[in-house]
Specification:
- By secondary structure, the protein is α/β, with parallel strands linked by helices.
- It folds into two domains: 148 residues, Rossmann fold, CATH 3.40.50; 175 residues, Dihydrodipicolinate Reductase, domain 2, CATH 3.30.360.10.
- Helix 5 links the parallel strand 5 and strand 6.
- The radius of gyration is 20 Å and the shape is globular.
- The site of NADP nicotinamide-adenine-dinucleotide phosphate (NAP) has 22 residues, from helix 1.
Length: 346
């Protein structure tokens, strides 16, 4: 495979996200990736997906094993309920093919640890698709931190109205979640990925969680106090189960200033820098397409595979493990009445 040849991808799990985001994202970067085949356990759904994605009937399968045995498939893109990602990783690596799995990395910490172990045991790239890590605003925020002195505290606050028409509520595996924390790990890992990419890893959490909506299937609302490995303190609030308006805000407080990224309105996100010398603050320009990470995560996966260098992966399983482990520790802390819980290491 030369680096000029697009990576030929076999996609498994032709559900909502495959049709709505993976297919358009892969189609938008034809020099990096090409959808060569697809599979779904209910094959009719795979056929419908294939028709939309321009995959011929002869390349539609009903299992990962069949997809892997297709010589025209170089790598796997797996969009499965998270309790099945471990088996998918093991199967792909046994077949000698790279795999990208969707977040959260797994349903339990034990499964996530096994995925990390499998990935460490091979040179074949195993990527976790956490698209927030590719947001353009992350390096922009990091570049401002030098102007606010020593970072002391941060607050990552994300509340959104409950959407009764949310298409994801209809998926059986979210209705009876095996993944710890249900919607908290489903969406929460994205937020943890965002602030840890900027501020480093979390050491321990004290958290309380509650379930607001019956439809969530598990706890859906979390408020946590964090101690980072750096010693920085923080708070993390996450819910999609309350009411309007949507508020998404990351504030980072230093000894000489504050950075505030307000992404409540995706189309009009603002980044503000306040310093002792500029108390009124100034708006820092936010890069275009700030929240479009999906094509970039595929480009990153393709590059690591083409160059046969897993160290190029921006989200190896170790990193995704941490994001998930923060949510798991938060749920455990809440179950213990809010006592501090150390975040597990892979
Ligand atoms: N990064 C993001 O922002 C983002 C957003 C949404 C979703 N996701 C992730 O994408 C993945 C898929 O989510 P989705 O919302 O698209 O869910 P979905 O619509 O339920 O799709 C899941 C697919 O997996 C298949 N599947 C279910 N159980 C299976 C099993 N036991 N063995 C093999 N295949 C099985 C389903 O096939 P059947 O139709 O036969 O059941 C379905 O096609 C999840 O990991 C999710 O966390 C990521």
């Amino acid at each position: 495979m030369s680096s000029e040849t697009p990576l030929r991808v076999g996609l498994i799990g032709t559900g909502i996200f495959a049709s709505q985001r993976h297919y358009p994202a892969i189609a938008s970067i034809p020099s990096s990736l090409q959808l060569a085949a697809c599979a779904n356990r209910s094959v009719d759904k795979a056929k419908k997906f294939a028709a939309i994605a321009g995959i011929p009937d002869s390349k539609v399968y009903d299992s990962l094993e069949s997809l892997l045995s297709d010589p025209d498939v170089d790598a796997i893109d797996a969009l499965l309920p998270s309790q099945f990602t471990l088996q998918a990783v093991k199967t792909a690596i046994s077949a000698g093919k790279p795999i990208a799995i969707e977040k959260p990395i797994a349903a339990t910490l034990a499964q996530a640890k096994e995925i990390v172990a499998v990935a460490r045991s091979t040179e074949i790239p195993v990527a976790v698709l956490e698209n927030f890590v590719f947001w353009n605003v992350i390096p922009e925020i990091k570049s401002l931190l030098g102007q606010i002195g020593e970072v002391i505290y941060f607050s990552h606050y994300c509340t959104a109205p409950f959407n009764f028409n949310n298409q994801y509520l209809d998926t059986w595996w979210r209705q009876k979640p095996e993944h710890v924390g249900g919607f908290l790990s489903d969406g929460g890992v994205h937020q943890v990925a965002l602030f840890t990419e900027i501020l480093g890893q979390v050491n321990s959490v004290s958290a309380l969680a509650t379930q607001v909506r019956e439809q969530s299937g598990d706890v859906d609302t979390l408020t946590a106090t964090l101690k980072m490995k750096s010693g920085v303190l923080g708070s993390f609030t996450y819910t999609s189960a309350v009411s309007n308006p949507r508020i998404n805000k990351l504030s980072i407080n230093g000894t000489n200033g504050t950075v505030i990224y307000d992404f409540s309105d995706k189309a009009n996100a603002t980044l503000m820098l306040y310093t002792d010398a500029d108390k009124a603050g100034k708006v820092v320009s936010v890069p275009d397409n700030v929240q479009e990470g999906v094509p970039k995560e595929f480009e990153n996966f393709a590059e690591a595979v083409q160059k046969q260098d897993k160290s190029l992966l921006k989200i190896p399983p170790e990193k995704a493990f941490h994001h998930f482990a923060v949510i798991v520790a938060s749920v455990e802390s809440s179950n213990n009445g809010g006592t501090a819980v150390k975040v597990a290491e892979p």
